[in-house]
Amino acid sequence: MERFNGIAASRGVAIGKLHFFDNCQRPVQLARSDSPERELERFESARLRALKTLDDLHTQAVERVGPEDSMIFGVQQALLNDRDYISGVRDLINQEHYVAEYAVQRTGERLAQMISQLDNVYLQERSSDLLDISGRVVRQLNGELARDLSDIQGQVVLVAQDLLPSETVQLDQSKVQAFVTGGGSRTSHASILSRTMGIPAVVGLQEQLSQLRDGALVVVDGFQGVVIQDPDEATLEEYLGKQQSFLEYRRQLKRLKGAESRTLDGKKVVLCCNVNQPSEVRLVLENDGEGIGLYRSEMLCLEREEFPSEEVQFQAYREILEGMSSRRVVIRTMDLGADKKLPYLPLPAEQNPAMGCRGIRLSLQYPDYFKQQLRALLRASVYGKLAIIFPMISTLEEVREAKRLLWEVEAQLRSEGLRMERPVELGVMIETPAAALISDMLAREVDFFSIGTNDLTQYVMAADRNNSRIDSTLNDPCHPAVLRLVRIAAENARARGIWCGVCGESAADVRLTETFLRMGISELSVAPASILELRKHIRSIDLSAQPQRCPEPV
Ligand code: PEP
Ligand code: MG
């Protein structure tokens, strides 16, 4: 029995077999497939995607360093189209029935070895390019989560070095009992998604990940952030007990369905849910969410192979709004960039993506995509109670420009005779220190604020939210620096008479609930699975009594 300590990302206990998701950068294994046709298809589509990436890299490099120094990408494209290379891989798949990853790696190594021995310096140098392009294709193949999961028999505990939001959002929830990752923190998107799905997760295992074995039986303790490999009988029994009592606790909480989210002294709190997909409306209703406080619309892009058209977006927004009928749905315009990248829409590489072109910055740089989303939103507005929120705001001008584009789209829709519900509430996410500090000015522009404490914490503490080496004393929404900014935003909202909510993960942190309510926060938006527990806690708070000390005086 071995015990590994990581970060508790999502509560609950899972007992199951480990399944490695092949983005773990483990060496490619020799494996055979019973379907060479499928492997050939996988190879071809991964090769084409790798070619597309090289093409984009080439274009970017030409802009930055000029055509001469960018030639390498052209050469690599030629190698990926090389007949000997392609037939080498195909032969190994057809004749030896190797899986595509292994066939690609082996062909790359064989050809690289061959040309490194040639008596021609230029060709010798191409051997590293052959290894490079093979690595590229293997990475593309590893990105095929669907295939990887389609091999799963029954339920598993998924292990990955890191899960990208695009990968997490595609997981088949009926098969994944829990996640375990080497990287990540409590507020990385994989952790957030695991809480929405209500499955236990332990992240940040770092190097310990290499000691986990594919197929081994493990206990995942999402309360303590512990993974136990090869548990003995007594441990298994102990955890089966914990699993049962947690289920029982959740069952008891169900009694609070239909109850009010009101403090002992009568303050009503609006308790909403964060969702990532239209299908999660079911979870919101099951858990008695009073609305949707944050729909991360960019997830629509991450689960697809091409940018969702206006029609696809319209249908998704309509589904959510209709599903929630008269309850408010806050839809965030796409917060792409940083860790949410689109393989089919490569953006220029950035030195510091979290501080780069993400959220509203990206939307304003690509106004056609942004306007397409605004059209879909306004068209869907007749199907429910829509509110629109802009992410990653840091200047007044960004809000004004976003509103200008919204008005432009509205006028256009009117001229087309399309119906829409106007006005829809407009809000900004307060997730940069700048936004909090100018929240008095922002409050004049919008109808509400929602505080994204995940990013606010990352930016005010200069602590990468995705880095498991940043400890929780830095990545801490209870830090007074974060709370002071929350208070500033809440006070400025109140002064202007607009509502202010919190939709970062700290909204579900019961250590902070009383503090938030005393600051004037009137809405909390959390994962559906946290609603009833938070309601229970709110019902125990008495704001007329002496304040319970918040984590630190602010
Ligand atoms: C936040 O930053 O707190 C937030 C809710 O947005 P996201 O987690 O999607 O960045
Ligand atoms: Mg954010």
TrEMBL record:
Chief location category: cytoplasm
Coiled-coil boundaries: none
Annotated PEP-utilising enzyme mobile domain residues: 153-225
Binding site for Mg(2+): E431, D455
Sorted UniProt keywords: Cytoplasm, Kinase, Magnesium, Metal-binding, Phosphotransferase system, Sugar transport, Transferase, Transport
Enzyme nomenclature, EC number: 2.7.3.9
Subcellular location: Cytoplasm
PEP-utilising enzyme C-terminal domain: residues covered: 251-542
Record flagged with keyword Chaperone: no
InterPro entries hit by this protein: PEP-util_enz_mobile_dom (IPR008279), PEP-utilizing_PTS_enzyme (IPR050499), PEP_util_C (IPR000121), PEP_util_CS (IPR023151), Phosphohistidine_dom_sf (IPR036637), PTS_EI (IPR024692), PTS_EI-like (IPR006318), PTS_EIN (IPR008731)
One Gene Ontology cellular component annotation held by this UniProt entry: cytoplasm
Cofactor: Mg(2+)
Binding site for phosphoenolpyruvate: R296, R332, N454, D455, R465
GO MF term set: kinase activity; metal ion binding; phosphoenolpyruvate-protein phosphotransferase activity
Domain Phosphotransferase system enzyme I N-terminal: 5-126
Active site: H189 (tele-phosphohistidine intermediate), C503 (proton donor)
Record's catalysed reaction(s): L-histidyl-[protein] + phosphoenolpyruvate = N(pros)-phospho-L-histidyl-[protein] + pyruvate
The keyword Aminoacyl-tRNA synthetase is annotated on this UniProt entry: no
GO biological process, one term: phosphoenolpyruvate-dependent sugar phosphotransferase system
The protein's role, per its UniProt record: General (non sugar-specific) component of the phosphoenolpyruvate-dependent sugar phosphotransferase system (sugar PTS). This major carbohydrate active-transport system catalyzes the phosphorylation of incoming sugar substrates concomitantly with their translocation across the cell membrane. Enzyme I transfers the phosphoryl group from phosphoenolpyruvate (PEP) to the phosphoryl carrier protein (HPr).
Similarity field: Belongs to the PEP-utilizing enzyme family.
NCBIfam families the record matches: PTS_I_fam (TIGR01417)
Protein name (Swiss-Prot/TrEMBL): Phosphoenolpyruvate-protein phosphotransferase
Organism of this sequence: Candidatus Anaerotruncus excrementipullorum
Gene: ptsP
